[in-house]
Amino acid sequence: xxxxxxxxxxxxxxxxxxxxxxxxxxxxxxxxxxxxxxxxxxxxxxxxxxxxxxxxxxxxxxxxxxxxxxxxxxxxxxxxxxxxxxxxxxxxxxxxxxxxxxxxxxxxxxxxxxxx
Length: 116
Description:
Layout (H helix, E strand, L loop, with lengths): L2 H15 L4 H36 L3 H26 L6 H23 L1
Helix pairs in contact: 2-3
């Protein structure tokens, strides 16, 4: 048995023993679907239906910018909640959520340091 036969047999063994990743794929798709529907609803309420009424009721630019920031934060938190809820069905999903959220947090901190 040569070196290449040993390598191929090892990779075949790894492929046979690898776990099925369809649960991960399904969780990511369901999380994406929840996030997309939440963002679509928020966008429809805020941008399409809300802007006309907001312009009529609120004339102050500062108040309008604060309302926009709140709407953005609501959309972000809805997406994070959908992501976390979609990962609950996967073993170790909480750990995946933690790693991804910490990575984004570190990335945004490094961007803030570069700007400032």
